[in-house]
Amino acid sequence: MSSKDRSEVQNLDRRRFMTTVGAAAGSVALAGLACQSAQAAELPKLAETDPLAVSMGYKEDTKKVDGKKHTNHKPNQTCDNCRFYQGTSGDFGPCQIFAAKAVAAKGWCQVWAAK
Ligand code: SF4
Known about the structure:
Elements: H1 3-42, H2 51-55, E1 92-94, E2 102-104
Antiparallel strand pairs: 1-2
């Protein structure tokens, strides 16, 4: 085999490797997204009556937050613009503060912090 042939084989192997790695990485990323979305859909919704939710002043609708009680609340603060919200689509999503529960995208609690 000439050095030119060897070089072509190496280039072909490199292209195959990159194609395979790229396809595998894409599959893993898609599987991760599907898994994340399935997990969010499977999480039980956080009830406003949950003791931790009550202590954090959580409401499913930010418009229903008692502004006199929670003076730091602003009407434009919602879970989907909070740094702890992990939902990517839909009306509910995971929150880092309320583990294993889905919070309302338009909800709010006193831990709200801007993204
Ligand atoms: Fe919503 Fe943020 Fe409170 Fe979680 S921490 S419930 S995302 S406001």
